[in-house]
Amino acid sequence: MSLSRSFPENIDDTKLSQIIVQKVLDHYERLPKKGKPRPEEWTTLASFVVVDAHQNIEVVSCATGTRCLGKSLLDKNGNRVHDSHAEILARRAFQRYLIAEISHIYQNKKSRFLQLNEQSRVETVPGVKVVFFSSQTPCGDASIFPRQPQDIHPEMKRKSNISIESEGQLTYTSVGQARLCANRFKQEDSAAIEMTQISCNGDSISKTQDLPSNDFDLYRTGAKCVQGCAQDSRAPGSSYHVTEVLRTKPGKGDPTLSLSCSDKLARWNVLGCQGCLPMIFLSTPIYLDHIIISGCVADKRALIRALYARLLDTPLLPPGGYKVHRPDIQVLHHIFPHGKFQAGPNCIAGYTDSCERIRPCDTSLIWYKISNSESVTEVAVNGYKQGTTKKDLTSIKARLSVSRSSMFADVHKLFNSLNDEKKQCLGGRENLPTSYQKCKELVSFMSLWNKLSSTDCLFSHWPRKDAEYSKFSLLEI
Length: 477
Fold this sequence. Notes:
globular; single chain; 23 strands; 8-stranded mixed beta sheet; 3-stranded antiparallel beta sheet; 477 residues
């Protein structure tokens, strides 16, 4: 799929973001039906988009997903994907795209995204921007913000998809969604609110409510505070949650070790979104220039707080391009058709409770580009390829291409394809270690992460997985 631009060059960021979101949604619609939700199911869509200096836009990866494995299901051989939230899968797919582009660069093929510098390391082309899109507010800290129905703007024209935005950046994407949120507000904390009602009068909506004058409720997250951090009080109203702490992903039953999407995006804003292994070839980390959230209730202030503001006291970072990055964050109103609150066949004019789909989709759809004429599409279930039988769980047949073991094998293959001169520029080693953990320890990314996680900052509370989950080797793959 080639880069495309059907609009004037040098348009403003907001308009460009709107075009980007629509391109992502259009791209998703063109993907195969397999892996997408059934009518009663919902999912989250996330995507990475590359925009060049001429504002040519290209979707390079996207994924859907809402699931995460519990601790008892973690895989020690790197063959199983533990975190299948859309944001994380889209980023893994972006890493696959990145590895493919790096390979093209070393083969002297042209790329609008990357180039080779004088030290034979790969860097981004000047003027190129990386954009992240999600149809859902990231779980965890970014999902905690005031839940006040009076923030709904009382006078908005009715459209097929009504956009309602307050000056405080609290955003609803439809009247039906606003009504559902108000209903939940009433049902979940009856002590904090006596009555909330949103009625439709002609071309506008109006609301009446009776809130205690000294309190308000919060949108709540099921993500749990990690040990060592301040803990939620669970008190009524605005004191229910504590903010600016690390949280594990929400879920019932077997607890997960995976951190919330808010925390992982915050980590990307310090270490880059490229991950560890690609830093073997890159000169500097790759940061997200723009983060776009669209099609859900969202609060820009909470997004800023969760994704970078709480990191501003991170200790001085060493040379090498690392920093606390501050991406542009925008909240838009484009509707993802398979989101949780979108109207189904029984939803009349967006005002009935049937607007809320019943359950999350069990499958994840993963797509990424590997060349102008090639791409990869996979469907994942429980961290494996869909259709995997029990007898194949330990074989390569079960492994997704975005799994750790698969990417580790391809990074090895890429490094071995380089001539001695280029290898010399990449650290002077003839071969990479066959151990996954030892290979990661070669790059500044890992040493910096180890330093940050042992320093007095947000990351010091990041839970450490047992070393056994990173001890697998290439010989075992």
